[in-house]
UniProtKB/TrEMBL annotation:
SMART domains in the cross-refs: AAA (SM00382)
InterPro entries noted in UniProt: AAA+_ATPase, ABC_transporter-like_ATP-bd, ABC_transporter-like_CS, ABC_transporter_ATP-bind, P-loop_NTPase
Stretches assigned to coiled coil: none
Domain of life according to the entry: Bacteria
Organism: Ramlibacter alkalitolerans
GO-annotated molecular function: ATP binding
Protein name: ABC transporter ATP-binding protein
Length: 273
């Protein structure tokens, strides 16, 4: 059953042609979807429509069987920038969504500390955001988004500013936490490998609508997933859907062979490129 549906959604910023037009999207309960597409194709706008931050001019956004009119506490949002409150300690940043309603109970504080522990931040709970690395700040933003156990988590390129190693660690943490909580996820990214690693379905966005849905049938994610043939094949499928040229590296050859071919040049001479 769908948790979130966009049906024939159209949206235009005032005075501009539609950014989103004829968008249809179904996200099943517990699913992990990634939206990929070229810059400016409307991914963030679709996410904001899904959140109820923007309202469609035509069509409808249905969440849990009801038309979505406004953002509620059943949705968590993580942006590219962690957007933490600089004057609040880490633990208070995580508890912010709770504090907006009432003074956090001992139980809620214990829950926040447990999230921080799971994300490797137990020792940093009393620090301020400026005393954390970029990756640690992103983890705090993730814990804050999950503290109210939202049914749907929306993420807009949350790891784009991080180095590759930290990004991979956060991808693993995100899968783990959402798996534990049974959270449904809609995740915007430019990074094809990130989408293939995270998603069970990739929705390709073009001209403000979903033009292709790609099921990613990878088994349980492990560190070996990223180097598997199935992973490379899935990435190639998404590249094709985005009309990107394939890299020249032959799929079956080892990296040394591929590098050797590039270094040797057409006539077999060794050349430096
Ligand atoms: N407030 C606004 N007023 C007018 N046009 C806007 C506004 N915000 C976004 N747009 C336009 O809507 C289109 C889609 O923007 P959106 O941010 O959804 O794209 P995106 O796919 O998320 O892009 P990127 O990958 O670069 O973040 C773009 O052409 C953008 O210029």
């Amino acid at each position: 059953m769908s948790l979130l549906s966009l049906r024939g959604v159209r949206f235009a910023f005032p005075g501009w042609p539609p950014t989103v037009e004829g968008a249809d999207l179904e996200v099943a309960q517990g699913a992990f979807h990634c939206l990929v597409g070229r810059s400016g194709c409307g991914k963030t706008t679709l996410l904001k429509l899904a959140a109820g931050l923007l309202h469609p001019d035509a069509g409808e956004v249905v969440f849990r069987g009801r038309r979505r009119d406004a953002i509620g506490t059943d949705i968590g949002f993580v942006f590219q920038s962690p957007n933490l409150l600089e004057w609040q300690r880490v633990i208070d940043n995580v508890l912010l969504p709770v504090s907006l309603h009432h003074r956090p109970t001992a139980e809620e504080t214990a829950q926040a500390l447990q999230w921080l522990e799971q994300l490797g931040l137990a020792a940093h709970a009393r620090k301020y955001p400026r005393q954390l690395s970029g990756g640690q700040q992103s983890r705090v933003a993730l814990a804050r988004a999950l503290i109210l156990r939202p049914a749907l988590l929306l993420l807009d390129e949350p790891f784009a500013a991080l180095d590759a190693i930290t990004r991979e660690e956060l991808q693993r943490d995100l899968l783990q936490m959402c798996g534990t909580l049974g959270t449904t996820v809609l995740f915007v990214t430019h990074d094809i490998a990130e989408a293939v690693y995270l998603a069970d379905r990739i929705d390709v966005v073009e001209g403000g609508r979903i033009v292709q849905e790609i099921a990613v049938g990878l088994p349980q994610r492990t560190p070996a997933t990223r180097t598997s043939a199935a992973f490379a094949q899935a990435c190639a499928g998404v590249r094709a859907a985005l009309h990107l040229e394939e890299p020249v590296i032959p799929a079956q050859a080892g990296i040394q062979d591929a590098l050797g071919a590039r270094l040797r040049g057409h006539d077999g001479r060794r050349v430096v490129q």
